Amino acid sequence: MVSPVRRCSRTACGRPAVATLTYVYADSTAVLGPLATYAEPHCYDLCAEHSERLTAPRGWEVVRLSDPSAPVRPSGDDLEALANAVREAARPQDRGDRPRGGGGPRTADPAEVARRGHLRVLRSPDS
């Protein structure tokens, strides 16, 4: 009986495959992308551990294609934006220049649309 789950192509690894590796010899490139729909004879299916540790031969480039359906990992910019928002929320606020009840924006920031507590709704830079 054949298992419906594709396994990692690495020798002695039986973990389920999550990515497919293809070599483009003409460009000296290894392309690692989401698991292919079906197994190809000249492609290699890799588990999560082997796909993360993948390196290419000297002089080759590794191109990692992301899976659009996979959850997006936070980037360094996301972390910095979060840290800045926390710093701003923790900063003591001057209560004299705001109407009671917290209504209305604190600043004349043209990108700020609305405010609820320390959270702000910002207008998209495209609009």
The rounded Rg comes to 25 Å
Report how far the terminal alpha carbons are from each other.
57 Å
Shape designation: elongated
Helix proportion:
10-25%
Strand content: 15-25%
Give the helix/strand class: alpha+beta
Total strands: the figure is: 6
Q: What is the succession of H and E elements?
A: EEEHEHEE
The whole-number mean of residue pLDDT values reads: 79
**How many distinct helices?**
2
Largest sheet: 4 strands, mixed
> How are the strands ordered across the major sheet?
3-1-2-4
Unreliable spans: none
Which descriptors apply to this entry?
single chain, 127 residues, alpha+beta, four-stranded mixed sheet, two-stranded antiparallel ribbon, 2 helices, elongated
Molecular structure report:
The protein is an alpha+beta fold. The chain has helices at residues 48-52, 76-90, and strands at 19-24, 29-34, 44-46, 61-64, 112-116, 119-122. The strands form 2 sheets. The protein has a 4-stranded mixed beta sheet. A two-stranded antiparallel ribbon has the order 5-6. A hairpin with a 2-residue loop joins strand 5 and strand 6.
In short:
With 127 residues, the protein is of the alpha+beta class. It has helices spanning 48-52, 76-90, and strands at 19-24, 29-34, 44-46, 61-64, 112-116, 119-122.
Q: What's the helix and strand layout?
A:
Blueprint: E1 19-24, E2 29-34, E3 44-46, H1 48-52, E4 61-64, H2 76-90, E5 112-116, E6 119-122
Parallel strand pairs: 2-4
Antiparallel strand pairs: 1-2, 1-3, 5-6
